[in-house]
Amino acid sequence: MTRDAFVRQMQLYMPEAACLIAYDWVETNPVLIRITKPRRSKLGDYRPKGKDGKAVLSVNGNLNQYSFLITFTHEIAHHIDFIERNSLRNPHGDSWKKIYSKLLTQLFENKCFPTVLELEVKNHIHNPKAASCSDPKLLSKLNEFNSVQVLRLIDILEGEIFQIASNKRIFTKGELKRIRFRCQEKLTGRFYMVHGQCEVELINS
After folding, report:
1. Among 4, 9, 76, 165, which residue's beta carbon has the most beta carbons within 10 A?
2. Which residues neighbour 28 within 8 Å (Cβ) at sequence distance 6 or greater?
3. CATH of the domain at 30
4. pLDDT tens digits for 2-22?
């Protein structure tokens, strides 16, 4: 794909300022890019070899432009890390973190993120997580750019009854344990650790 064609396609998903930088990454480290339908279990994915023998990088196509960019950067860092180490062991180890931070720094220095995101992106660069959803402060800021705002578990009070939007199971919100809340399912009485960014609907008690 030519540079102009790449930019035309990718500016539908990521900030225009980042497109040429992303093109250089892909041109130097060839990889097949797939824009996928929303997946509940992950935002992106990387596989060294797909069915056709080519490395494949995928990103959910419903992400806002900054979530897409960070996820894309996360996955291209996996690709570069695999090229350098020829191994998938310890995928979020020091090698990947160094590459990921370097790529994010390049984006940051080229003003690819709005001012409101700069502090959280800078902190993320210095302490990269295995996924943006493992960095609650960054994720919260990224979600502000979603076209449709949703209610998340972190937004409601402890003790309130809620329904998980994706599967309609009903819980009572409990105490926070790192980035997850200990919640009790109403039907079974069992306790589950539910991520604070889980999309929920309040239930009148």
Report:
1. 76
2. none
3. 1.10.10
4. 999 999 999 999 999 999 999
